[in-house]
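INFO batch 0412 | record 1 of 1 | parsing
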Amino acid sequence: MSIVKKTYPIIGMHCAACKQLIEKMVRKISGVSKVSVNYASEKMIVEYDPNETTLDEISIAVSSAGSYTLVNNSEGERVLASPPEAKKLKTSSDLPKNSNHNQAAELKQEEYRRLKRKVQIVFIGSLPFWGLMISMLLEWFNPEYMNPLMKLGSITFSTLDYKLNLNHLLQFLISTPLLFWGGRQFFRSAWSAAKVWAANMDTLIVLGTLTAWIFSTYVTFFKSPFHEVFYEATVFIVLFILVGRLLEARAKQQTNQAISKLMAIQAKEATVLRDEKEIKLPIDQVVPGDVVVVRPGEKIPVDGELLNGSTTIDESMVTGESLPVERTTGDTVIGSTINKSGSFTFKATKVGTETMLSQIIKMVEEAQSSEAPIQKLADKISSIFVPIVISISFITFIFWLFVAPQFGLVGNNVTAFEVALYAAVTVLVIACPCALGLATPTAVMVGTGNAARKGILAKNAESLEIANQIDTIVFDKTGTITKGEPEVTDFFVSKDLPELSKLELLQYAYVVEHKSEHPLSNAIEMYSQNFISPSKNNFEVKEFENIEGRGVTATIGAKKIHIGNKTLLEQEGIVITDDFLNQAEKFSKLGKSLVFLTIDKTLHGLFAIADTIKEDSKRAISNLKSLGITTIMLTGDNKITAEFIAQQVEIDKVIADVLPDEKLEAIKALQNKKSSTVIAMVGDGINDAPALAQANIGIAIGTGTDIAIESADIVLVHGNLTKVVEAIEVSRKTLSIIKQNLFWAFGYNIISIPIATGILYPFFGILLSPIIASGAMAFSSVSVVLNSLRLKVFSR
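INFO prediction complete | emitting C-alpha cells
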C-alpha cells in the first residue's frame, strides 16, 4: 500500500460546519486514511492510497457535501515556474498560473467580485427598508410623527372580505427577490447539507429568514389575528451576513498573503550558457547542470554552486537576514535572492519544486493547512453547534408560545406567537460557529507566514503551539553554537628565534598548507592570508607529503618544513622546548587543537585552532535564559573543550563525551527526569537527527544536513541562533492571539444566545431584534480575523 499526501484548495467554504461536512464525506471513501480541512486557509490535506481511490472520486465527494470545489492541476500538486516579476500583489493574475494556490486565488477573486456585486445590489434593494427603519425610529422618538408608509392605505377584496395592506404588499414584493436571489447561496448550501442529513451555518440562516418570510407572507395574504410582518428582518439578515462574509473574505486574504508574497519573489527567467552562447530561458526550462550567468542587480533564478567570481547577495527574502552576505567560488547560492555586486556564473543544482524557495512555500502551505491541538475543542463544539442552536430555538419558541403566557411574561401589546417567533428567529440568526472555526487557524496562518518571512519554518501548527511551552533547550555544539569550521585563534612564535619573522613563518605555512585539503590545513591557510599576499609569494614547494593523522612535510629551497601535531614531532625526533610546552598546555586547557611549525627540525611556531563561536550565540542564549528557559549543551567533544565553549556563551549545563547514538538516550533521560518538561533540541548534523525526532520540538539549522532538517519540527533557514528566540516569541504571541480569539468566540455565543432567547424581556422589556442579531453575528467572525491580523504588527 502506497499512501500519498496532498494539499488542495477548496472553494466555497463559508462556515466552520463546512469543514466538518467535507471531512465527513471524504472519510467515507475507501482508500482515504486521513483528511483534515482548514476553514481559514480553505485547504484540505488528504492522505490516500492511489491504488484504491482517485482524485476524481475525492473531488466528487467534496462537491457532494455542498457547493464546494476542489482545485487541482494536472499533476495534483503545486508547481512553481515562470512567475511574473515580483511586485505588489493586487490580483491573483499577478501569480503563476499553473499552481493550485493560484488557481484557487483566481477562483476566490472571482467569487469575491460576485459577492461584492451582490452586496451592492442587495444594499440598493434594501434602501426602502432603511427608510422604513428611520421612519419607525422617528415615530418612536416622536409619537405625533406619522409614518408615510402608513398613509398608503389598504386595498379591499370584497370576495375575500379581507383588506390587503398595501404597505405589507410592497414589502413582500421588494423583500422576496432580495431574500431568494440575494440569499440563494444560503439556500443551496443548506439544501446540500440536508441531502446528506447534515446541517451547517446556512441551515440556521435559512431557517431564520424563511420562517420570518413565511409568517410575514401569511399575515400579508391571509386573514390573521397578527399584524406585524418581518420582511425587513429577512432583508437585513441577508444583507448583513453578505457584508460580513465580504469583510471576512477580505480579511482572510490578508491572513494568507505569506505564500503569495513568497511566490512573487521568484525570478522570471535565467541567462544560461548553451553551446558557449548566452540565452535567456524561462526558469522552468533550466535543468540541473546548466551554467547560469548572473549580473549585478539580477535575481538568482535557481539554487546552485558558484563556479567563478565573487559577489555580495541579499538573501533577506529567504533567510530573514537583513545584511547581504559574501559568496565566492564553491559557495551555495539560493534561487530568488538578489545579486548586489559582482557578476558570476554558477551551476544549477536544484530547480523547480526542489529549490529552497519551493520547499519553503511547501512547508508554509502545509503548516497553514494543519491544525493546532488547541483547535480540537473548538472543532468538537462546532460539529454539534448547529443542532444545539436549532434545539434552543425550538425550545425558545415553545416556551414563549405556551409557557410564558401562563406566567404573564408576554406584554399586552403583542401576542405570544409574535414574541415566540421573534425570539426563535433571533436565536437562529445570532449564533455563530464561524468565530469558533476561525479562532485558531487564522492566527496560525498569520503566525506561520510571519515566521517564514523571518526565516523560521514551522512544519505544522502543532509545533508552533508546543514551542510556546518550551522550558528546556538542548543545543548541539558543532555547527550550532559554533561555526562548525576550524579557525586559527592564536599563533605563538618563540622569542628566542628572532632571525625568522612571523610573516616569513606564515609564508612557509601558507604555501605548504595550500597543498593540503585537511580542514586544519585550510584553517592555517586562511589565517595566513590575512597577513601575507599570496600572489607575491614566490616560494616553490617540493617533496610535499601528507602524513595521515599527523601533518604535512615539504621542502622549500634548502629548508625542510614540518607542520603537524605532537606525534609528528616525536616521530621526527624534534624537541619541543619549554616555552612551547607551557603555551601548548595553556591552549589545550582551552580545548584548542595544536599544530606545530618546524624548519629544519627546529620548532618555530605553534598554531592554536578551535571551532569558534558564532557571533550571535551568546546573545541568543542570554535571551533564552531571560525567557525562563534552561539551556544545555549536548556534544561528543571532550569535557574540557565543551566546558570552555559553555563558559563563553554562559550556557547552564554541559553533557559532553556523548557518542552519536547516545544523544537520543540523553534526550530521553531529560524527558524522564520530569514528565512535564517540554524539551527542544537544536542541531544540524546527521548524528542529531534521532535526538531532533525524540525531542518535544526539534529545531534544525537550515545550513545543516537534509536528514536533520527532515527530522525537525521547525527549520531555521539561516544558521542564526537568535532565530530560536524569535521562533519562541512568534509562538507565544500566536498562542496569545488564539486564546483571545477563543475567549471572544466562546464568550460571544455564551452571552448572545441567552439574550436572543428573550431572557431580558420579562425584566427590562428588551427583545433583541433579528436585524441586530445578524449584524452581531457577522461582526463576530470579522473581529476574530481582524484580531489575528494584529500579529502582522508583531512581525515588523
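INFO post-check: The first strand starts at residue 4 and ends at 11.
INFO record closed
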